[in-house]
Amino acid sequence: MSHVPDQPENSFRVVLTLNHRQPRLDTLLLEAIRAQEENSELQRISRTAFKTLFNEKKILIKGQAAKPSSSVAAGTTYVDILGFEQA
Fold first, then answer.
1. How much is the pLDDT for 3?
2. Which of 3, 28, 32, 35 has the most CB atoms around its CB within 10 Å?
3. Contacts of 35 (CB under 8 A, 6+ apart)
4. 61: region left, alpha or beta (phi > 0 left; psi from -120 to 50 alpha)
5. How many Cβ atoms are within 10 Å of 42's Cβ, its own excluded?
6. Cβ burial, residue 20 (10 Å; 0-12/13-18/19+)
7. Which domains does the chain have, with CATH numbers?
């Protein structure tokens, strides 16, 4: 059984479920953010603001700051974005 990491306070969680490894987190995550409907502020985020979230280490995977160029393994990955509320 897979372990679901605790979600930090004041964060929005995106769950990525992949059949195949993906080469870049940033492209995949931006698509997922735009597709979700629980947080309209995040849904409309600009590419510049999105990039700033990475630069300010506000995008976490397993509690660790993620890099835009990080690859994403097949399976389920929990991504937490700090500073945004879950609906």
1. 79
2. 28
3. none
4. beta
5. 19
6. exposed
7. 11-82 (3.10.290.10)
pLDDT at 1 over 60: no
Q: Supply 69's token pair.
A: 């160029």
Q: For 6-59, what is each residue's pLDDT tens digit?
A: 999 999 999 999 999 999 999 999 999 999 999 999 999 999 999 999 999 999
CB contact at 8 A, 76 and 19? no
Tokens of 55: 């630069």
CA 14 to chain centre: 5
Give the whole-angstrom CA distance, residue 55 versus residue 74: 25
Q: How far is Cα 28 from Cα 65, in angstroms, rounded to an integer? A: 16
26 closest CA partner among 5, 6, 8, 51: 51
